[in-house]
Amino acid sequence: MQLERTNIVTEEGHETFVLNLGPQHPATHGVLRVKLTMDGEYITRAEPVPGYIHRMHEKMGENRTWAQFLPNTSRIDYLSAMHYTHAFVSVVEKAAGIEVPPRAEYLRVITSELNRISSHLVWFGAFLLDLGGFTPLLYAFDDREKILDLLEGVTGARLTYCWYRFGGVGNDVEPEFVTGTREFVTYMRPRLDMYRQLVTENVILRKRLEGVGPISADQCRKFGATGPVIRGSGVPYDVRRVEPYSVYPELDFEVAVHPGGDCMARYLVRMEEIAQSLRIVEQALAKLPEGPVLGKAPKTVKLPPGDYTFAVEAARGRFMVRVVSDGKDVPYRVRLRAPSFSNLSLFEETSRGMMLPDALALMGTLDLVIPDIDR
Amino acid sequence: MTLPEPFRLVAFLVGTLAFVGLNAAYLVWVERKGAARFQRRPGPTEVGPAGLLQPIADALKLLSKQVLVPPDADRILFRVAPILVMSPGLMCLATIPFGEQLAARNLDLGLIMVFAFGSINVMAIMLGGWASRNKYAIISAARIVSQNVAYEIPMLLVVVTLLMSTGTTNLQEIVRQQAGGFWNWNILRLGVNPLMPITFLIFFTCMLAETNRAPFDMAEAESELVAGAFTEYAGMGFGVFFMAEYANVLVGCSLATILFFGGWQSPIGILSGVGWFLLKLYTLIFVVVWVRWTFPRTQFYRLLNLSWEILIPISLVTLALTSVMLKLFGK
Amino acid sequence: MKRALRELAGGLTSLLTGMKITLQQFFKPDVTVRYPHESLKMPKRYRGHIVFVREPETGRSLCVACKSCEKACPSECIVVNGVKKEGEKKKSVTDFKLDFTKCSLCGSCVEVCPTDALEFSKQYNLASTTKTEYLQIDLVKRLEEGK
Fold first, then answer.
1. Reduced to 3 states, what is the DSSP secondary structure of residue C51?
2. Which subunits have 3 or more CB–CB pairs within 8 Å of chain C?
């Protein structure tokens, strides 16, 4: 084990010290340790040390049957659990040739987009908490309660839904869900307006975020950052458009893009994504067909030997599942490509020379969920 | 009816101590309940009816904690700093006129005395941070000092502007000049200073910054990740710093009420008294709480930029404007 | 100069708009449900720990101890045993222990049961000072006690 030199001298001859943004934060990020080498107020080097919440999901994939792995998928990134389960069931369906009825596809899209909205609301509240504005957190969580109540009525769980099955979804929805979701959409749009007036146009917040933490599109490509991070740098990369899946090709929505590259751009991209998700939910509810919700799937799923992948647009970026099967009822290898890991790797390069509060604002806009980094 | 001098002294001493103590403790309750209502939740409700005994529960909790003095801290200064930081609150209230007869010591230089004692606050925080011998406490305390110095200047410029129109620093006299209805209050004396409401806004902002209230609480809160000026203070030492912050808010808002809103004068000209003073005082304190829970924090250098680049030029402009108006149009 | 003043005025109005919004929220009612003085009604599909479904005529469990739930569980928390009583076609359950400290409420056991003998309860406020109380939730005993 190498001893860390604590008094590195910079080129200007200043002495630096190492500050531990320890695993325990007063902010809400989770258990991530960042070793900051500081020159007074400025960061000269930021080294993230992940691994404090490594739960070995990929290893668990090798010891559980295809159906037994489903609860794991919700717990990788618990805030946008539906998307991760969607990726896993889709890769198995694609490989085994299981058909999904259209009603199930539409229900999957509706619940996924509701989950995206609730994930962005958590990001919004936690980000503002980092910046010192305590009140919008509670307003956002009030809105999120409505989504969680809707999803609880359908699946029975509030955070770690285990509702998608191979070939469709676990159970059909009640009519109350459809009316409740329509009410929610009408309720949420004026709230977005309120957030815009209270937070986005607030001069203190704008001064705090504009011009801070610029990330160029090239840096994003170098580190593989996806999701609102790369869309905030002007690149319209959205998996729902680049590699369309489920019924997204039939729905009309725009990809939220902003050319700024600074914290404000990423913030605006996420707020716009909430509005677009509401649009998608509205259209999908209108187009919801009748029919069964579960297609024919074998009792014990066995995939033909081979290598299969599937990517979805999760709330944080591109989440991809790669499974390698050797014909048994247990996978040979499950590989989870987590978006937060790639987004985090941007932090070291872009935070060089920034002041600590600005670097924290930058980390907030990357929207990291630490269990997603460590899996 | 005037009591003989010793009794009057004791009565006012007890009264001031009780007022400051009760307010410092119960402004915590006001803040928590206010924050809760803005966030649409109940706030403290369990301890006592509507949570009214919550500050007492908090005080008991703080009193029962072990007071750790760091081994290499300056022994005298470490213990003296909390007492010093509480003293401006008590001393300044000696000249504040609560009502027609209710001024403990109505000095002719009352306004100057309030500002003189107010600057002890900054010194005490610096002492507290320095005596802790903690790297981060010293940095944080130094930031608080630079913030306070930056905001003293526009505050004093604004007060000088006001002094030019009132002509006296006697606080009771300033209140008496605003007799009549609310159109006589200093904030609406646009004949003397057309930018008077802006002047009040500058005074209010400076008051928020002087007392380290959000959105200017950078030195205390950003250092959440590292430390704050009061890290080494445990138990009641921290409790005293906390109460002193509220006592300072109390003094600042009382001053704002007297200088701009007519003190104990009633807005309709009759039935003036201490009730109006308390009503205006608590309305201003409500606004202070309201501002805290609405906005995020500024960055530290922007805070200083706000003072040096925006508030000072504007207050100089109002000063010049007032002097011109007074010269041309008289009082 | 004019731009700076306009920016200043714009900034000030944004602050005042923000304050107006929080003041409007100040006068709206609480959102909080004051648990434990009040509590919410659990939705129909809420996932509490599993319990036996009572057969309407006999009051017994529908479980035939086929061990499908034991095999389907990802976390290996179910242990079920049964014996074939005299004169009956299928086994009846004698022993059903659920290790709730490992259960992830995935619902595989409920879905895979061939006789639909399991269902989710609405139990949401389990609390105990020892781990043993949830280490061995005994469904047979709970059925006998009438829970």
1. strand
2. A, B
Domain ranges of chain A: 57-374
Alpha carbon of A114: minimum distance to chain B alpha carbons (Å): 24
Please name the member of B39, B40, B296 whose beta carbon is closest to the beta carbon of A204: B296
Is A71 part of the contact surface with chain C (CB cutoff 8 Å)?
Answer: yes
Residue A3 has pLDDT above 50, yes or no: no
The three-point CA angle A179-A181-A185 to 5° equals 115
Encode pLDDT of C101-120 as tens digits.
888 888 888 988 998 888 88
* Distance (Å) from the alpha carbon of C133 to chain A's nearest alpha carbon: 23
Q: How far is C5 from chain A (nearest CA, A)?
A: 14
Residue of B nearest to A207 (CA): B298
Residues C78, C25 share a domain: no
* pLDDT the model gives residue A84: 93
Cβ atoms of A83 and A73 within 8 Å: the answer is: no
Cβ–Cβ < 8 Å for A223, A175? no
What is d(CA A19, CA A37) in angstroms, rounded to the nearest whole number?
Answer: 6
CB contact under 8 A, A156 and C46: yes
| B35/A358 CB distance under 8 A | no
**Contact (Cβ atoms closer than 8 angstroms) between residue B181 and residue B267:** yes
C124 touching chain A per CB within 8 A: no
Asked if residue C38 is part of any domain, the answer here is: no
Assess whether C104 and C59 both reside in one domain: yes
Alpha helices by DSSP H, chain A:
57-61, 70-76, 81-96, 102-131, 135-155, 175-195, 203-209, 217-223, 228-231, 239-242, 263-287, 339-350, 356-365, 370-374
DSSP string over B159-202? HHHHHHHH----HHHHHHHT-SSGGGSGGG-TTT-TTHHHHHHH
Q: What's the total number of domains in chain C?
A: 2
Domain shared by C16 and C81, yes or no: no
Nearest Cα residue in chain C from A158: C46
On chain C, the residues whose CB falls within 8 A of the CB of B41 are 30-32
Answer yes or no: do C101 and C56 share one domain: yes
Q: Which residue has the tokens 């040390």?
A: A49
C45 within some domain:
no
Q: What average pLDDT score do residues A336-364 get? A: 89
- Write the CB contacts of C50 (distance below 8 Å, at least 6 apart in sequence): C98, C109, C110, C118, C119, C120, C121, C139
Task: Answer whether A25 touches B (CB < 8 Å).
Answer: yes
Tokens linked to B274:
């201490």
| Residue ranges of C 19-58 with Cβ closer than 8 A to chain A | 21-22, 25, 31, 43-47
CATH number of the domain that residue C117 is part of: 3.30.70.3270
pTM given for the model: 0.90
For CA atoms A230, A234, A237, A241, the dihedral sign is: positive
Name the residue range of residue C23's domain.
1-31
Judge contact between A110 and A330, C-beta under 8 A: no
Low-confidence ranges of chain B (pLDDT < 50): none
Closest Cα in chain A to C12: A203
**C39 domain residue, yes or no:** no
Residue from A182, A176, A187 nearest A154 by CA: A176
ipTM of the complex: 0.86
C9 touches chain A (CB under 8 A): no
HSE-CB of C104 using CA atoms within 13 angstroms: 20
- Among C15, C21, C111, select the one facing A203 at the smallest CB separation: C15
Four-way CATH pick for A57-374: 3.20.20.80, 3.90.1230.10, 1.10.760.10, 1.10.645.10: 1.10.645.10
Instruction: Please write the tens of the pLDDT for every residue from A69-83.
Output: 999 898 998 999 999
Same domain, C124 and C73: yes
Q: Are residues C55 and C83 in the same domain?
A: yes
8 A C-beta contact, residue C139 and residue C96: yes
Rounded Cα gap, residues A120 and A132, in angstroms: 18
Cβ distance B294 to C19 less than 8 Å, yes or no, reads yes
